């Protein structure tokens, strides 16, 4: 019978053999003796197990003798079976890091040869780290390159010039503190000023000897006070005496900070400055109401009118210096040291005068003649006297004359 019946074409059917289909299964061999096979296999398995155990024991002994295993034992950790694989991975990572470090050093050396600074190399490496590169290993001693910014930070700052005490005081004080300090300084000046006017010169001299700061505080306040005056008598006398001939000898009695000497010495005039405290440069320490350290005599009682002998001073200046209750003694000393026809210039605060004529009369009784008087200034009154001969006075007459210091009132400030 045909498999397909197609008109004009047919395929004859062939008989299918039963053996044509092949099984994919393996055919078992002939049966063996099961007891013999099992005993042989057991022996070989036992030998393999013994070999495996020996090899494991040998590996454990080697691991126990290695330093890593000993360190783990010291730390209280028990070695694990996978430690050998961990060690191998650590060695691989360490070699990788060392290789990268060598590559980095090579890059730095090449960059240095090209003229690139180590700071630029470090900055590029830092950028790589910021983008996610693994952390850099520390360089060995002598090979570590610091960024330039760190070098600049570690450089010592330049040493600043030490400021003077006055500059420190100015820089540390705020505007409010400076105002308060100025007020306190003004109050201190007024207190010292009033004390000097109401006590005799001996007491004032002793006070300033014991505390030199009193002298400095007074004249600091005085200089500040001068700024509020319309004119300064010292500046007036400096301008006037500058027209005197060279080698004129001027005695500045109660000179303060020796402003006259500083102004007139460069112009060829001789200025001798006296005050209660010396500055070791211009000022000679002296109580001008007791004794001026200059030559000169007053004459002998009972003789004819005289001007004395041994005088060296041409001009004596008392610019706001007739202080203390014994101020007439300073006028007496001025007469003693002045040459005949020598000049005595006095400038005093206008408010001190209760009777200008009484003041002029007292000065003339000491041995002077009034040459001029200027009361135009609202703050000060200026006098100019000339030394004349006089009859020598007895001690009683001198004591009575010198005790009239109350003709001038002390300078007093309003209480605040």
Outline the structure in words.
The chain has 416 residues and is α/β, with parallel strands linked by helices. Helix content is 46%, strand content 12%. It contains 14 helices and 9 strands. A 7-stranded mixed beta sheet has the order 5-4-3-6-7-9-8. The protein has a two-stranded antiparallel sheet with strand order 1-2. The longest helix is centred in the N-terminal third of the chain and has 32 residues, at 34-65. The radius of gyration is 58 Å and the shape is rod-shaped. The chain starts with a strand and ends in a 14-residue tail after the last helix.
Short description:
The protein has helices at 34-65, 67-74, 83-113, 118-130, 148-154, 165-172, 175-198, 201-210, 212-226, 233-241, 259-264, 328-337, 356-367, 395-402; strands at 5-6, 9-10, 249-253, 270-275, 283-285, 313-319, 338-349, 368-374, 380-387.
Q: Which regions contain 5 or more consecutive residues with pLDDT less than 50? A: 72-79, 130-134, 149-156, 164-169
**Main sheet: strands, sense, barrel:** 7 strands, mixed
Distance between the termini: 151 Å
Please state the average pLDDT score.
77
Whole-angstrom Rg: 58 Å
Helix content: 40-55%
Structure annotation, total helices = 14
Order of SSEs, N→C?
A: EEHHHHHHHHHHEHEEEHEHEEH
Percentage of β-strand residues: 5-15%
Strands side by side in the biggest sheet: 5-4-3-6-7-9-8
Please tally the β strands and state the result. 9
Assign an overall shape: rod-shaped
- Class by alpha and beta content: alpha/beta
Quaternary structure classification: single chain
């Amino acid at each position: 019978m045909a498999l397909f019946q197609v008109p004009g074409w047919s395929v004859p059917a062939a008989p299918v053999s039963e053996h044509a289909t092949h099984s994919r299964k393996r055919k078992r061999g002939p049966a063996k003796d099961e007891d013999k096979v099992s005993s042989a296999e057991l022996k070989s398995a036992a030998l393999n197990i013994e070999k495996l155990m020996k090899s494991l024991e040998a590996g454990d002994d080697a691991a126990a003798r290695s330093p890593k295993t000993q360190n783990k034992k010291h730390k209280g950790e028990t070695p694990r079976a996978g430690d050998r694989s961990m060690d191998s991975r650590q060695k691989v990572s360490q070699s990788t890091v060392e290789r990268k470090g060598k590559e980095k050093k090579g890059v730095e050396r090449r960059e240095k040869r090209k003229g690139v600074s180590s700071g630029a190399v470090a900055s590029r490496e830092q950028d790589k780290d910021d983008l996610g590169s693994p952390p850099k290993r520390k360089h060995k001693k002598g090979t570590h390159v610091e960024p330039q910014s760190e070098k600049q930070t570690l450089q010592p700052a330049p040493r600043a010039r030490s400021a003077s005490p006055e500059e420190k005081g100015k820089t540390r004080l705020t505007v409010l503190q400076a105002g308060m300090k100025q007020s306190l300084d003004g109050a201190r000046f007024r207190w010292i000023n009033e004390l000097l006017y109401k006590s005799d010169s001996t007491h004032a001299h002793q006070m300033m000897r014991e505390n030199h700061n009193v002298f400095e505080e007074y004249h600091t306040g005085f200089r500040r006070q001068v700024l509020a005056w319309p004119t300064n008598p010292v500046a007036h006398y400096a301008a006037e005496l500058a027209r005197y001939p060279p080698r004129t000898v001027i005695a500045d009695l109660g000179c303060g900070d020796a402003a006259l000497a500083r102004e007139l010495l460069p112009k060829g005039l001789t200025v001798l400055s006296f005050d209660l405290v010396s500055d070791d440069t211009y000022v000679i320490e002296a109580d001008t109401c007791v004794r001026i350290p200059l030559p000169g005599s007053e004459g002998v009682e009972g003789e004819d009118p005289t001007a004395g002998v041994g005088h060296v001073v041409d001009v004596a200046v008392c610019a706001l210096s007739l202080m203390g209750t014994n101020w007439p003694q300073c006028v007496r000393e001025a007469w003693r040291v002045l040459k005949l026809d020598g000049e005595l210039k006095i400038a005093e605060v206008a408010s001190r005068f209760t009777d200008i004529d009484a003041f002029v009369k007292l000065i003339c009784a000491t041995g002077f003649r009034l040459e001029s008087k200027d009361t135009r200034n609202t703050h000060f009154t200026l006098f100019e006297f000339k030394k004349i001969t006089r009859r020598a006075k007895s001690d009683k007459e001198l004591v009575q004359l010198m005790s009239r210091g109350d003709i001038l009132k002390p300078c007093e400030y309003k209480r605040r």
